[in-house]
Amino acid sequence: MFSASLLFVSASVVLPLSAFATPIGVNGAYGSEWSGITPLAIAGGSTNNGNFGSPAANGNVAYNIYTRDDGNYFYVLLTTTDSAGGALNFSNLYFDTIASTPGTGSNLGFETGNNDAFIPGDSHPATLLGSAGYLFNVTADTAGVYGNETAISNSFFLNDPLGMGFAKTPDGTLVSLHLSQSFGYGVVGGSANFAAPVELGDAIVSSTAAATPEPSSLALLGTGLLGAVGLIRRRVFA
Questions:
Q1: Element (H, E) at 154
Q2: What is the pTM of this model?
Q3: I need a labelling partner for 235 at 20 to 30 A (CA). Which of 12, 102, 154, 199 fits?
């Protein structure tokens, strides 16, 4: 006879529950992770090329904005088929970190290609995020579709880990993309053009996420399971 708990114990020993997934599918292209998410279509034609122009409802080129959150990261995917936008494939994203509070506006921005963050309207230099894993950004040209994809750690919104001084997001509440300066210098967004709290896209940001094993953990889990099965076989056929 063998113990029915043997297999469970072997698996639980080799699977560290604190191992969380890295960003999923950040490759600058629309993938299956975006399936079922309806983008916000931004019209083109804006002649506002000033770096600090007023927010408008349309951009220098037409592009789509997708947003989602998987419990670990807030994702933004921007896509355009306009080659002029492809030539200026960058994104500066402005967030309302307390979007559940009415009338707050943007209070945290990211220059995604430069891996830095800033407080909108603050004259202080941007804060370099370094290699801590707070932000990931990839640009790509996939068969004439120019993509710009960003993942920002939920912990950055929730905890202000670098002490920048923005309003931290209350756990389990909304963060919204308030402004987008992407594929050109014209700024899109603002609650005058897109209704709050959704604006250019929003998501619930929470500290609660299911633990996901890393590949090395999965390998150990597989080894543990095989060992348990071998032991069971020896006990059954002994």
A1: helix 154-159
A2: 0.80
A3: 12
